[in-house]
Specification:
Blueprint lengths: L4 H36 L8 E7 L15 H12 L2 E7 L2 H10 L4 E5 L3 H6 E3 L4 E10 L10 H5 L3 E4 L6 H6 L4 E3 L2 H9 L5 E5 H9 L10 E3 L8 E11 L2 H18 L2 H7 L9 E4 L8 E4 L5 E5 L4 E6 L2 H4 L10 E6 L8 E5 L3 E2 L6
Parallel strand pairs: 1-2, 1-3, 6-7, 6-8
Antiparallel strand pairs: 3-10, 4-10, 5-8, 5-9, 5-10, 11-14, 11-17, 12-13, 14-15, 15-16
Length: about 350
């Protein structure tokens, strides 16, 4: 019997019909993987490659309303630029930011602490900056006494959704009262709905000073001391989903970060995170001389300084941060001169000579 060409053609094409879609899918996955790998691998001769990274709103570290996105955002952008990338920051909630980097929707996320759950499936950079976690309380309600984990377990401790806190606190507090933002947490603290609020020292102070918070910053303090139940120093990191391609990028990121941290530029970028940055003032002449008078602790004239002299306030007088009494005489403020002929000297000035606001450099 002569062979049937149509039948033979059908037999030959049958495997292709069965396995064709599978092979096509594998080809698409392979091409996509190659594209991602190439996208993460900068070429020294090509322009910077755009990448999307995620973050949250966490003043004074990072936030869409802060200058340059905040000091930590500025730092991450600079490091990625040096590594050959052009980052775009997507601001969202912390939980969604982590979900996006795990799903591949973004290349990286920052700034996060190195919790055990994150170390399990994410790559962590070297620390970008270090910061303090503390427990805030309302002074009007009295300072809670914490000497053991059981003391914390009996209190209502507030936390921010998406945060991972330090181990000792999370072991002692099994059920945080969660809030969407630091501002909401402080509002709850002011209203007596919680006893303590766990937050970074600087973000907490920034929230208390925010005009959107209606409470008085003087009504709130934080538990003092180095007891790990109430205090922790953590590093903040840039993180990526764990993969071979990401590991190569992270090595380059850490290399550039290390070089940057050894430079003056790093100090300038993170200067806004230092409480001393909020003490920078310009000094104006008081009186008719047209010169700034620099005094000793008794108010005796020591030196004169020209207009444009800058200083850092070492101690704000009680009249500025506590409660003023009767109308005082001359208020002396201890300052350290940061420019001019007397740079580095620690002297006093009449409080009327201090001018707040942006201090030119």
């Amino acid at each position: 019997m002569a062979p049937n060409p149509a039948r033979w053609s059908s037999l030959l094409l049958k495997p292709l019909r069965i396995w064709g879609p599978v092979l096509a899918l594998l080809l698409v996955v392979a091409v996509a993987g190659t594209y991602i790998a190439i996208g993460l691998r900068p070429s020294p001769t090509s322009p910077s490659r755009p990448v999307l990274v995620a973050s949250g709103d966490w003043a004074p570290f990072v936030g869409p309303e802060l200058p340059d996105g905040g000091p930590v955002a500025e730092l991450v952008v600079e490091v990625l630029n040096r590594a050959g990338y052009r980052p775009e920051i997507r601001y969202t909630s912390w939980a969604l930011a982590e979900e996006q980097v795990r799903s591949g929707a973004t290349v990286g996320v920052f700034p996060l602490v190195a919790s055990e759950s994150r170390r399990a499936d994410l790559l962590l950079s070297d620390p970008l900056v270090d910061f303090e976690y503390v427990l805030f309380y309302d002074r009007r309600a009295g300072q809670p006494k914490i000497s053991a984990a059981a003391d914390l377990a009996r209190l209502r401790v507030g936390g921010i959704t998406g945060y991972d806190y330090w181990d000792e606190l999370e072991s002692a507090v099994t059920d945080f009262v969660e809030f969407k933002s630091t501002l909401e947490g402080f509002q709850a603290l002011a209203e007596g709905r919680i006893d303590l609020l766990a937050e970074g020292l600087l973000p907490g102070q920034a929230a208390l000073a925010d005009p959107d918070f209606t409470g008085d910053i003087a009504d709130f303090g934080h538990l003092q001391g180095d007891d790990p139940l109430v205090h922790s120093v953590q590093g903040l990191h840039f993180m990526m989903a764990d993969s071979t391609e990401a590991a190569a990028v992270m090595r380059k990121f850490n290399q550039e970060l290390g070089q940057l941290r050894r430079s003056e530029e790093y100090a300038e970028i993170v200067a806004g995170l230092s409480p001393s940055e909020q003490r920078e003032v310009a000094l104006d002449p008081v009186g008719g001389t047209g010169l700034v008078e620099l005094l000793d602790e008794r108010g005796v004239l020591v030196l004169l300084a020209p207009q444009g002299t800058r200083a850092q306030v070492l101690h704000w007088p009680d009249e500025f941060v506590g409660r003023a009494g009767p109308t005082p005489g001359r208020i002396l403020v201890e300052v350290k001169l940061t420019n001019g002929p007397a740079q580095g000297r620690v002297l006093r000035v009449d409080a009327r000579a201090l001018r707040l606001g942006t201090v030119g450099r």
